[in-house]
């Protein structure tokens, strides 16, 4: 397929009045450039013509666009994550970095062999012979237990009878002989049944060994295949240097690439642009279709690149490009922090949005560091946390005892918290309760997902304050305090299905995350007085 079918040039009219990007997009926190928005509109228009894909796309798919330049021509490339319509090579889209599904490649035959092993395992596990042995083993164990229990009961009755005979002066030697015989007989019964059980277990063990050997072979083949796949994903950077995925992930805490690495839209786009000699200008990824069951994705919303699969790859591929600095590492240090409450044991401050609650990986100041500097004579400890993008009341303890007591209040749900948010959408019910358990998405930290099996309970009460112009002002009263609880409960289809305005993880970009911790109420753990600390909502 020629490059002409993959590079989609903008017209002169479309480019009029749009300034080209000065730096390439920082992929993990960005507002899409107008040219990326335009490219996305083009791509969605094309997708609407592909009726043969409509059912699959409706199930949900991450797409990406890369605005690029070559020979004074400006246009864009498009890509999808994973595969589409059981293939990797489609008109309009860039190809995969390495096409696993290519019929002349090593993957299909090796996958077929692994599938054969899976079939053998299933066949042996479900074989009539194996099932018959398992049933027979269960029956034999039950029968052996019944006979042994019955004989032991007989022995107990015999003992009672012998004791009576001894009292009546019977011959001791005959009684002892009977006792010894019964003990020996019990042992013979046990040995006989155990031999029968062992014979069946031996036959089952032969089947177990077959299955175990096949599983070992499957694991070895799968690991070798995965390693071979990763070695074939040779990623370029803007300097023309190349590394395979094993080399890219070796220095990371993961050590090895996760499954699916290199198949996301962003690496595909950059790789193809480099191979074809184009200069990347800007990039964006967006969701098409329904949200997955556990994750939160909204049709048409732009999303940052994932961390687990893409961050190491993109950090390599972007070398040599002039990339926008990480916006989160260039926030002001908020020199003037408002203190809302201060006594001998507790200090509460009004946390600005886009400031860390506690020190993190980013080389920027945190509120805890600021408070510690201000109260240098105290051992400042944060009592609870607010997301970096959230503003509002944050409590710190000045002593270890106060910290322990305040944490106990939070853990026992004796602290009443009120948050104010603006949602991107209209909520039908005036008030209610959201109960959706949450757990970290290990493949896309720090994003949380709803998981009814493994998630931790997360409960939020809410009340609508005002609705206008497609937005809802709402008060949240969280009962639990899970990471991103309010953000997920607002965004998830089984929650309010209306993300908080400015939520770049679960919604869309705005000037800020419109979530504010307006007040906390609790009984002071030292003075036992009622305390309410509040600060007005800034939006």
Describe the structure.
There is one protein chain. This protein is an alpha+beta fold. It has three domains: 3-98 and 233-324, no CATH class; 116-229, Orthogonal Bundle (Helix Hairpins); 328-534, Pseudouridine synthase, CATH 3.30.2350.10. Helix content is 36%, strand content 20%. It has twelve helices and 19 strands. The strands form four sheets. Strands 8, 9, 10, 11, 12, 13, 16, 17, 18 and 19 form a ten-stranded mixed beta sheet that branches. The longest helix is centred in the middle third of the chain and has 61 residues, at 172-232.
Poorly predicted runs of 5 or more residues: none
Please indicate the count of domains: 3
Structural class: alpha+beta
The CATH top-level class label of the largest domain: Alpha Beta
End-to-end separation: 51 Å
Strand count, sense and barrel status of the largest sheet are: 10 strands, mixed
Shape-level CATH architecture of the largest domain = 2-Layer Sandwich
Please compute the radius of gyration using only Cα atoms.
33 Å
